[in-house]
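Quick one - first record:
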Amino acid sequence: MSHEGHESDHQSLGTETGVELETGPTNAGDGNAAADTPPMLHGSGRTYDIYAAVFFGGRRRRVFGRLAAQSGARPEHRVLDVGCGTGYFTRMMAQAVAPGGTAHGLDPSVEAISHARRTTRLDNCTFATGVAEALDAPDGSYDIVVSSLMMHHLPEALRPRAASEMFRVLRPGGSVLVAEFRPPASRIGRRVIKALTGHRTMAENRVDLLEPMIRAAGFDQLCSGGIRPWTYFIQARKPAAGP
């Protein structure tokens, strides 16, 4: 199902922040040795960050700032950033939950985590190697879990496990936000993305599969939307504990 078809099933709720928001109907330290995710090659951390800045057309900070706002993060919240890469979004989340809150980033790439640690000057922001499908965290230990541009790197068979792990480590009533690359609708646009990235994964990224996967993990109160130029997100909540 295309993104355009997906949008027709939702009510548009455009906001002052420029987020194209949609709502849908309401409906479970370091890496684990048994994990299956290979580390992604980020090149040098600085090179990756420059590439990301160019890829977002100079809008990277605006896009991730809006994602941070959309996540619902507040001071004193505990945040986990799954697949944090060089830590760009993790640092923004750390700023969003200050004072009193913390942000912790996980990524399977030792090089990416080393770069994130070197370039971070925030006392409430930490990093460790780890994988999405086997999060090294106790049940219910975070208020907010975020993940940006990570899911398409996982083998399809591991994606539901990653969503279930996000559900597990959230407290009841906690919020998840998963942001992904939304390919252009046109064939020419997708060819350009393939040429820029060197592979088909992003050019053919199925963002329409995120919503059913998040629902299947146990989340409810889903909303979804887009932030130009390339970003699609799903936000949802873990049901609150019963009386």
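second record:
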Amino acid sequence: MIKVIEILKEDIETVRKRDPAARNFLEVILCYPGLHAIWLHRIAHFLWTHHMKLLGRLISHLNRFLTGVEIHPGARIKRRLFIDHGAGVVIGETSEIGDDVLLYQGVVLGGTSMEKKKRHPTIQNKVVIGAAAILLGPITVGEGAKIGANSVVISSVPPGATVVGVPGKVVEDRREPIIDLEHGKLPDPLSEMMKKIMERQSLLEEKLKRMERLLKEEKDENHTENNQKIK
């Protein structure tokens, strides 16, 4: 019982640390559906792992109705998970989430197989997943990685990496597992690619101008030599 109280206090303190809008203890308890979703999931998961699967599914269904967060009771979630806003979050049955993970609204940890096996993502410690990001299949997102908003990730992500785009591509590999809430400042791979194309085009244009100058000089020299021969 003491451990349960400690975990509940830890969950509340996690919200207060991660959300600048959280003003006090009571507000966090009453007004944070992401926190309520985690608490209800813990009950559902306990029932699921103690051979009361139907009751666990019913609690999970109630959780979705009350909070807008759908977490399968089979999903394994460790400590200090923060689901910000929560609406539309979906966490599948074989998902695994480590400590100190941050999920924004609309995140989906989905499966890609019809077989009864590991088919959902594994999220390691201190990962940040931006709004509406979709992660599919039994992939692993390494410790400290960041997934940009609206990304679709279908392959494993190395620790400390930053992934954006559809499908998701690694645009930064920092290898320093930290919690960073500034996921809105992630690199834009499309604009960076266009910048590289423009730089490449400028180099090619410069080379072409040099070749034109050389050809013109060579032509002028040949013309001069021909004139001298005629004389």
